[in-house]
Design brief:
It is built from 12 helices and 12 strands. The chain is an alpha/beta fold and 353 residues long. β8, α9 and β9 form a beta-alpha-beta unit. The relative contact order is 0.16. Bound molecules: iron/sulfur cluster.
Length: 353
């Protein structure tokens, strides 16, 4: 792309802050992901983050409610039965174990607990769904955190039952850009994933949809995913960086350099100004630059352990926030003057770091 004709990161931030939230187009995003000065991209993203989120960040946590034995073949995943990774198939956790996880999440300042199962999906009349409905209800009734879930494909009846039990948000990641998806997953399609996301939105659920960066994809695929998420108008965007696990299809892939990770975060902030772009798996690859993820535009992070890999200690995370002067907030909140007319009310008290 001719760099004399392309908008600068500062131009894009100016346009976003003037109300054009879709100012970043595909070609400009690819330019920012490749050639533009990374510090200029980060500075623009930080302006946008501060305008929409102030000094607030959102923390969430997940629990592996049903580990291993998944029939799908997602190339990054230690829980797929197509790969030999040492992760065993386990039973569903009990509701009591899941409520204990929500209490732990609250102690880590997380305001939501995502109940995650290594399953293709659940029909409305399945035993698996019965267990998850019971667990969601138990988390809601315990009142420690909101109940979110990531259960694979869900039909209409399954969504209705989960919503009735207290589910407030559904996670269903797209993993990567549409044109790279076939290199990552072959056991289901991109459109199947989009169908569950659309169905959840139609029912009024908040949606949490992101992907994994660093699986050998090109910058174009990263831009493609970001713009698909914008088109779908999802609420939260978990940005993961590949944690290469032995035995999976991507076990030979090296992590991205920290500065490239920050560049991706900054571009996602500019592409998705209002969405809670939060950093989940792989943030340890940022190394000493980890606190800079917020200056690059991140508005949250996952705390506590990931599904099958450890995270860094939550005490270090909370100290980092305190030293950065950041406070925790309920997911989905933005600054009042920037929020949608239909902004959702807060359902939980704000916890200050
Ligand atoms: S559907 Fe989920 S649990 Fe199953 S292989 Fe894919 S990422 Fe892993």
């Amino acid at each position: 792309m001719d760099s004399t004709s392309v908008a600068t990161p500062r131009d894009i931030a100016d346009r976003i802050l003037a109300g054009a939230e879709d100012a970043l187009d595909f070609d400009t995003m690819v330019h920012f992901l490749t050639e533009a000065d990374v510090h200029e991209v980060m500075a623009a993203a930080d302006r946008v983050r501060r305008a929409f989120f102030g000094n607030k960040v959102h923390l969430c946590s997940i629990v592996n409610a049903k580990q291993g034995g998944c029939p799908e073949d997602c190339g990054f995943c230690s829980q797929s039965k197509h790969f030999t990774t040492g992760i065993k198939a386990e039973r569903f956790l009990s509701s009591e174990e899941i409520v204990a996880a929500s209490e732990k999440a609250l102690s880590q300042r997380a305001t939501a607990l995502g109940l995650v199962t290594a399953t293709r999906g659940m029909d409305g009349d399945s035993k698996a769904l019965d267990k998850m409905v019971e667990a969601v209800r138990a988390v809601r009734d315990a009142g420690h955190t909101e109940a979110h879930a990531s259960l694979g494909f869900l039909n209409s009846e399954a969504l209705d039952r989960l919503i009735e039990a207290g589910l407030t948000e559904l996670n269903h990641n797209l993993e990567t850009g549409r044109s790279y998806f076939g290199k990552v997953v072959t056991s289901h399609t991109y459109d199947e994933r989009i169908e569950t996301i659309r169905r959840a939105k139609e029912k009024g659920l908040r949606t949490c949809v992101g992907g994994i960066v660093g699986m050998g994809e090109e910058p174009e695929h990263r831009a493609e995913l970001a713009l698909t998420l914008r088109e779908l108008d999802v609420d939260e965007v978990p940005l993961n960086f590949l944690v290469s696990i032995e035995g999976t299809r991507f076990d030979h892939v090296d992590p991205l350099p920290p500065l490239e990770m920050l560049r991706v975060i900054a571009c996602y902030r500019l592409a998705l100004p209002r969405q809670n772009v939060f950093i989940a798996a792989g943030r340890m690859h940022l190394g000493q630059l980890q606190p800079l993820m917020f200056a690059a535009g991140a508005s949250g992070m996952m705390v506590g352990d990931f599904l099958t890999t450890p995270n860094r200690g939550v005490d270090d995370d909370l100290r980092m926030l305190e030293e950065l002067g950041l406070q925790t907030q309920v997911c989905g909140d933005t600054r009042p003057e920037m929020s949608r007319p239909s902004a959702r009310p807060r359902s939980l008290p704000v916890l200050s770091a």
